[in-house]
Amino acid sequence: MHTVQVETPGGHYPIHIGAGRLDAVADSIPADATAIAIVTNTTVGALYGARLRAALEAAGKPLLTIELPDGEQYKTWESLDRIFDALLAAALDRKAVLVALGGGVVGDICGFAASCYMRGIRFVQVPTTLLAQVDSSVGGKTAINHPRGKNMIGAFYQPLAVEIDPHVLATLPAREISAGLAEIIKYGMIADAGFFDWCEAHVDALRALDDQAIRHAVRRSCELKAWVVSQDERESGLRAILNFGHTFGHAIESGLGYGQWLHGEAVGCGMVMAAELSARAGSLDAAAVDRIRALVSAIGCPVDPPGLGADRWLDLMRVDKKNEGRRIRYVLLPALGQAEVRAVDDDVVRPLLPGTAQS
Ligand SMILES: NC(=O)c1ccc[n+]([C@@H]2O[C@H](COP(=O)([O-])OP(=O)(O)OC[C@H]3O[C@@H](n4cnc5c(N)ncnc54)[C@H](O)[C@@H]3O)[C@@H](O)[C@H]2O)c1
Ligand SMILES: O=C(O)C(=O)C[C@@H](O)[C@H](O)[C@H](O)COP(=O)(O)O
Ligand SMILES: [Zn+2]
């Protein structure tokens, strides 16, 4: 097992990475917990719910499972309410612990529920998608979506621990592996050019879930994310670099309707657009833009943005937590492996937004 430590004002906690961690989640349940509620969805619950329940028997606490419907379109108030209804019906108290078993959708909703229930109870992340193992389970961003914008209602709320078992990825559909790889290559683009080179060289092994390649990618991604959030838990500065590609990506998700493009697919395409903008409005060279587009395509994510129309693109991107006033702020790359956040005038961005000619 490998451990990466996260140190934030909101909590210090370990990320445990290793085969079999799913069977050892009881290690992360505090002795004073009065009950455990597993929050999962119908798909992951059917695959791994019984195994996690068996593992948690070791903690010797009353155990409850809450299954949500599966999909980004259920990252809503209604799902949150289902969790609160179940916790209250079972009379769980402030010393109960929630365990998020699933991808980023389950992790984000469960973390937000933990931040609100009785004004805050403890929770553990057990991420089961590649994307959740390298990104969403780490750093304490929790949220639900609003029809007008992604993750608009939420809280910073850190888990007690993150338990990553790479073996659960074996049941993940290929499209979800591609989506997870988008957030992995993001770390190379924004903070570690050497890791970007490594991803280019190992793309086939990563898509095939080669054990060694996945272990390295998960570990390096967690290290880089832990390094960023440990310096800036609440995104007052540095942390915004983790949003590279997301200004465009979130507009794709909300503009097309949640669940049409996967989050990772939208981010993949959004990173190509943000790279093109980095060349137009900054100093990124054309060769680096070409490498970014080629790698996004090689991991199996789309590189051509949908034609929403420039005005609608801009309206959607104006609903973004990085913005100040009406100006849209973007994460740009001055060079591969470096990132900065800057407002760019709409007229500079328009030519990148499909539908521009017609709108
Ligand atoms: N909090 C953060 O810092 C952060 C970071 C990145 C993304 N996110 C959020 O995470 C969400 C995307 O997460 P995601 O990509 O994990 O999507 P997801 O949670 O929808 O999971 C993807 C699909 O895989 C299924 N699944 C999960 N584990 C499986 C397994 N082991 N085997 C088979 N199927 C499995 C799920 O049921 C679902 O159908 C978005 O809502 C995004 O906004 C949050
Ligand atoms: O952890 C972060 O910070 C990130 O920005 C990671 C992103 O991959 C993630 O999608 C996040 O949820 C986006 O944050 P948001 O603040 O734009 O909702
Ligand atoms: Zn993301």
TrEMBL record:
Q: What is its main location?
A: cytoplasm
Q: Where in the cell is it found?
A: Cytoplasm
Q: Looking at its record, which EC class is this enzyme?
A: lyase
Q: Which cofactor does it need?
A: NAD(+); Co(2+); Zn(2+)
Q: Which residues form the 3-dehydroquinate synthase N-terminal domain?
A: 66-178
Binding locations of NAD(+): 70-75, 104-108, 128-129, 141, 150
Q: Does the keyword Coiled coil apply?
A: no
Pfam families xrefs: DHQ_synthase, DHQS_C
Q: Which UniProt keywords apply?
A: Amino-acid biosynthesis, Aromatic amino acid biosynthesis, Cobalt, Cytoplasm, Lyase, Metal-binding, NAD, Nucleotide-binding, Zinc
The UniProt record lists the keyword Lipid biosynthesis: no
Q: Pathway, per UniProt?
A: Metabolic intermediate biosynthesis; chorismate biosynthesis; chorismate from D-erythrose 4-phosphate and phosphoenolpyruvate: step 2/7
In terms of NCBIfam families, this protein maps to:
aroB
Q: What does this protein do?
A: Catalyzes the conversion of 3-deoxy-D-arabino-heptulosonate 7-phosphate (DAHP) to dehydroquinate (DHQ).
- The protein here is known as 3-dehydroquinate synthase
Q: In which organism is this protein found?
A: Castellaniella daejeonensis
